[in-house]
Give the backbone structure.
Amino acid sequence: MLGFILRRLLATIPVLLIVAVLVFLMLRLTPGDPAAILAGDAASSEQIAEIRASLGLDRPLPVQFAIWIGNLARGELGQSYFYKMQVTQLIGQRLEPTMALATLTIFFAVVVSIPLGVLAAWRFGGWFDRALMGFSVLGFSVPVFVLAYILIWIVSLQLGWFPVQGYRRLADGFFPFLHHLILPALTLSVIYIALIARVTRASVLEALGEDYVRTARAKGLPEIRVLVRHALANAAVPIATVIGIGIAILIGGVVVTESVYAIPGLGRLTVDAVLARDFPTIQGVILFFSFIYVLVNLVIDLSYVFLDPRIRY
């Protein structure tokens, strides 16, 4: 077990290194000059050249990459061109809103989608099953930003239940914190609910056709116990897998959702950094997201050992 964990942790190093190389090259090879953006429209070519030299952008790409990797090995992500502060400090300031939004989204998605998927499998072919399949298709089809504006118009502007935009930190009080976070989390959780519910339905439906389920029913066990203890428990591995895969969707959705709801998190920071061509900030945030994604998948892999005893052997 310990050896497996160490191997997986070591495997994250080449993955993050490949991500670092790709991000570095894509940012440098795409059109746009950070020095020109920082200098402004009225700047002369000499002023732009001075800014490029001060930022080290006039050096060859291999030299820039070697300097950045060297700083990264020391735990430094560099200094933001636009914010004039360390990228690690920027990430630390923006981490709470993003983590709070992601955690609440996952909570909503798991609590809602798994019971819906189990119930749809139990009532296979009925109206509820067809309704869930229709909702899944709709959830995948509607973009996050479109759903966000629809919910803002209905829930915030028409009903006045939640604020339109903004964020309150946990230190300001739990209920104001939750009040500002519920609507963005509901917006982001729709596609996640559609994904998990569809996979849960398929996995539980397959398990319900197995011999051990028919044996449990023949013994006279209550239907709820058959569904939870025998069907859902044996379908847990694919459900856990799709939860891990959904983290990638969640990371992408955070960027859009935070921009729509004006939440000062890592997603909003990424958008602002891209618009300002802030190379260190973009590289640091993407690497952080990549590390979180790899770490979550490691946890999912380790959960297989506890969800299915056969994997231990």
The chain is about 80% helix and 0% strand.
